[in-house]
Design a protein that fits this description.
Elements: E1 2-7, E2 10-13, E3 18-26, E4 33-39, E5 46-52, E6 58-60, E7 68-73, E8 78-83, E9 92-99, E10 116-121
Parallel strand pairs: 2-10
Antiparallel strand pairs: 1-3, 3-8, 4-5, 4-9, 5-6, 7-8, 9-10
Length: 122
């Protein structure tokens, strides 16, 4: 059983920055990749970014490329999402999870956590 806890969300003005954090606890040794998804009100959950746990290879959704950076600290079992130049359309609940591959079509290993709310005021 793996528990995922996201944090770091908040209210920020357009153009601002936030850094999200995800900590995984439990039996995480089989993790291939960690990723961030988000869900805005009335919309489907969508892929944001993912990172291969060992190699550090990354992949991003086109909508965040050049603005968001995903990283991980293997010793601390943490994954981060640095979000710069935030836009109103980035407003959503952000979730992390473990995946068997990189990218938008990857199936999550674990149940989704509570997520962390990001609200960008225009």
């Amino acid at each position: 059983q793996v528990q995922l806890v996201e944090s770091g969300g908040g209210l920020v003005q357009a153009g601002g920055s936030l850094r999200l954090s995800c900590v995984a606890s439990g039996r995480t040794f089989s993790t291939y990749a960690m990723g961030w998804f988000r869900q805005a009100p009335g919309k489907e959950r969508e892929f944001v970014a993912s990172i291969a746990w060992t190699s550090g290879d990354t992949i991003y959704a086109d909508s965040v490329k050049g603005r968001f950076t995903i990283s991980r600290d293997r010793a601390k079992q943490r994954t981060y999402l640095q979000m710069n130049d935030l836009k109103h359309e980035d407003t959503a609940v952000y979730y992390c999870n473990r995946f068997s591959q990189l990218g938008a079509t990857a199936t999550p290993y674990d149940l989704w956590g509570q997520g962390t709310q990001v609200t960008v005021s225009s």
